[in-house]
């Protein structure tokens, strides 16, 4: 490709990935969202993944396209960039139009922020949203949040869409103080797929495909100090990914220190690191020996490891283990369950009633949200919120 063609191609890619509403929730990669498109189950389920995070701590966030009678259903909205809309159009050509857009979570801001823009891209689609939507710092009516009332229904209260091929059931509601936590799971019977948002995820040691073209966030976090250059290798990518997983699941893992400001600045501004891409060498982290042992517990070696994300366990369900177990009982009773598809981390993980029963048994046996080791930061956060009266002691009361 000559220089002019390369530059045109880059301009086109940048337009195709543009997300102008990024200041509403200013997360990396801000106004440029690359989308990774995959057919997960032939002619049944497709995934569209983008990255989202803070300070290069980015993990995949996913919109799932599901084949339903007469067309398509989109679950968990994402910013409708040109790239994302072209991918959905390519599925529509073969499988019919988008009939339904589902926002199955009440609390996941990262999932609801793009619903208004996505709904404008599919003006004929019906919208189904989780009950108990709330906004912070002030509660606004749906219309003010840009959700069109004339074509929106509420899951549970108004029923459920596409019940000929989908079984729906709720996790929660729980009172989490600022609002409610609830997510509505969907079991797509023809493919045997359980679609969830945040409550259950599969994670593997291999970095997600989204980083293939731009591994900078992985390489940034694979270092020990800010004066080290970003060096690419598969090992560095895997190391960076393991650390991103620890950050995103525990917020502040136990084996992480925050160095003094003086130390951070002493290591910054090295000649080959004076670029915005490497944050000018500012790297306010220091990993202690043994950090990798914590990561190993979370990462499946050859296939994704199914788990409850620690942030969900310690901040949402610390006093509601039974509610979570009842939900797992429902999952274990699904006939023909074959796959878990969640809105973060690995797109497709093998699952079954037997595996759901085993997971339930393990969770029932082990201590839950105990606050030790890597959980200690989350533990402190929850205890402070509880002490300040922001979160209630009993999450089943106060609706
Ligand atoms: Fe989420």
Q: Brief description of this entry?
A:
This protein is α/β, with parallel strands linked by helices.
Features of this protein?
399 residues, alpha/beta, Metallo-beta-lactamase, Chain A, 2 domains, five-stranded mixed β-sheet, 12 helices, 30% helix, binds fe (ii) ion
Rg computed from alpha carbons, rounded to a whole number of angstroms: 21 Å
What's the CATH class of the largest domain, please? Alpha Beta
The CATH topology annotation of the largest domain reads as Metallo-beta-lactamase, Chain A
Per CATH, the superfamily of the largest domain is Ribonuclease Z/Hydroxyacylglutathione hydrolase-like
Can you put this structure into words, describing what you see?
With 399 residues, the protein is an alpha/beta fold. It has two domains: 3-204 and 303-387, Ribonuclease Z/Hydroxyacylglutathione hydrolase-like (Metallo-beta-lactamase, Chain A, 4-Layer Sandwich); 209-296, no CATH class. The chain has helices at 3-16, 82-95, 109-112, 115-121, 216-221, 234-250, 261-266, 291-296, 310-316, 321-332, 353-365, 376-387, and strands at residues 36-41, 45-54, 57-68, 71-75, 98-103, 126-129, 152-154, 166-175, 180-188, 193-195, 201-203, 256-257, 286-287, 305-307, 339-341, 349-350. Helix 9 packs parallel to helix 12 (376-387) and helix 10 runs antiparallel to helix 11 (353-365). The radius of gyration is 21 Å and the shape is globular.
């Amino acid at each position: 490709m000559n220089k002019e063609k390369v530059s045109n191609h880059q301009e086109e890619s940048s337009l195709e990935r543009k997300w102008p509403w990024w200041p509403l929730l200013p997360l990396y990669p801000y106004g440029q969202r690359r989308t990774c498109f995959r057919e997960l189950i032939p002619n049944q389920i497709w995934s569209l993944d983008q990255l989202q995070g803070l300070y290069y701590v980015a993990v995949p966030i996913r919109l799932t396209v599901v084949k339903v009678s007469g067309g398509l259903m989109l679950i968990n909205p994402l910013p409708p960039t040109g790239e994302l809309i072209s991918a959905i159009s390519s599925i529509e050509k073969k499988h019919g139009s988008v009939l339904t857009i589902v926002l199955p979570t009440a609390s996941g801001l990262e999932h609801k922020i793009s619903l208004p823009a996505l709904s404008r891209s599919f003006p004929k689609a019906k919208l189904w949203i989780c009950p108990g939507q709330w906004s912070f710092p002030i509660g606004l009516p749906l219309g003010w949040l840009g959700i069109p009332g004339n074509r929106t229904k509420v899951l549970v209260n108004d029923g459920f869409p596409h019940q000929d091929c989908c079984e729906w059931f709720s996790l929660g509601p729980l009172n989490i103080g600022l609002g409610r936590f609830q997510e509505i799971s969907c079991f797509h019977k023809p493919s045997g797929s359980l679609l969830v948002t945040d409550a259950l995820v599969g994670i593997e040691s291999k970095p997600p495909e989204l980083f293939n073209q731009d591994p900078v966030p992985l390489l940034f976090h694979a270092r020990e100090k800010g004066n080290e250059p970003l060096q690419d290798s598969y090992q560095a990518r895997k190391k960076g990914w393991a650390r991103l997983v620890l950050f995103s699941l525990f917020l502040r893992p136990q084996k992480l220190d925050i160095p003094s400001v003086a130390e951070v600045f002493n290591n910054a501004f090295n000649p080959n690191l004076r670029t915005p891409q490497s944050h000018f060498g500012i790297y306010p982290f220091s990993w202690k020996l043994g950090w990798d042992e914590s990561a190993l517990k979370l990462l499946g070696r050859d296939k994704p490891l199914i788990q409850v994300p620690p942030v969900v366990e310690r901040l949402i369900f610390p006093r509601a283990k039974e509610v979570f177990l009842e939900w797992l009982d429902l999952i274990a009773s699904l006939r023909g369950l074959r796959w878990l598809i969640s809105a973060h981390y690995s797109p497709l993980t093998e699952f079954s009633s037997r595996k759901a029963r085993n997971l339930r048994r393990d969770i029932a046996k082990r201590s839950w949200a105990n606050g030790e080791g890597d959980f200690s930061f989350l533990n402190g956060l929850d205890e402070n919120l509880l002490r300040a009266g922001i979160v209630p002691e009993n999450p089943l009361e106060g609706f």
